[in-house]
Amino acid sequence: MGPKPRFNDPLEASSYFHPIGTNPYQHLRKRLVEQIIAQGYDYDTLTEIPVDWSNDQDTNGHISNPVYGRYASTGNVRLFESFASTIGDISREMLSGKEIGPLLKGYHYDLKRPASYPDAVIVGNRLSKLLADRYFTTTTIWSLRQQCVVAELRGWIVFVDPATGRPVDLVEKGEPYATLWKHIEEKVERANTLLGKWNTEHRPREKL
After folding, report:
1. Residue 190, domain member (yes or no)
2. CA 172 to CA 178: how far, in whole Å?
3. What is the pTM of this model?
4. Phi, psi values for residue 143, rounded to 5°
5. What is the CA radius of gyration of the chain?
6. What average pLDDT does the chain have?
7. Is the peptide bond before 118 cis (omega within 30 degrees of 0)?
8. 207 falls within a domain
9. 22 — pLDDT class (breaks 50, 70, 90)
10. Strand runs (DSSP E) across the chain, as ranges?
């Protein structure tokens, strides 16, 4: 975790809402994204979400638990949208439930530390394992202000045929799904390679 930023006033602290001009969050964003990518998270589908004072916080002034699920869903949809680069226009049918598509089957939810307004979060997905009909992913949420992880969701996504309601072997189904499976496999291999390198370079020091 890097040093916490200092802001001159409350308006500067919420300047991530401003559409034009520089603000203190640019440096925070650059530093954090570099660390995220080095840990194997998918760069193209990173998602930044501003924290909303009125909608995202609970009575204690912290981001409420269900909101983290919404943040993660937004990041997952961005990952699904990236499949269009491989399967083309059929991705629209996939996301509308008219074609074989991804379905969140389950996840484990771990809140690491509280976060609150003003802030913005970055959501990233790191794919860790691939089977014939599903992949496993870690969806992580970072606070820009705190420069650290505030929530983590580990789960799996199953590809389901809407006509039968059953999982589908993407390779056996043929094109374009076999190509999509290969695309996901490449993401998994890249993520695991980068994560392995990160863990090797950032092993905790042994206590004397």
Report:
1. yes
2. 7
3. 0.89
4. -90, 130
5. 19
6. 91
7. yes
8. no
9. low
10. 47-50, 101-111, 120-130, 134-143, 148-161, 166-167
List alpha helices for 10-107, DSSP H: 10-13, 25-38, 65-81, 84-87, 90-95
Rounded Cα distance, 155 and 108, in Å:
6
d(CA 107, CA 118): 28
Q: Record the tokens describing residue 47, joined without a space.
A: 């998602």
36: Cβ contacts below 8 Å, ≥ 6 apart: 46, 122, 124, 140, 142
Domain that holds residue 77: 23-194
Spatial neighbors of 113 by CB under 8 A, at least 6 apart, are 146, 148, 149, 150
Pairwise CA distance, residues 113 & 207, whole Å? 25
Query: Could you give the count of Cα atoms lying within 13 Å of 106 in the half-sphere of its Cβ?
Result: 1
Amino acid at residue number 24: P
The mean per-residue pLDDT over the stretch 14-35 comes to 80
Does pLDDT of 45 surpass 70? yes
Total count of domains within the chain: 1
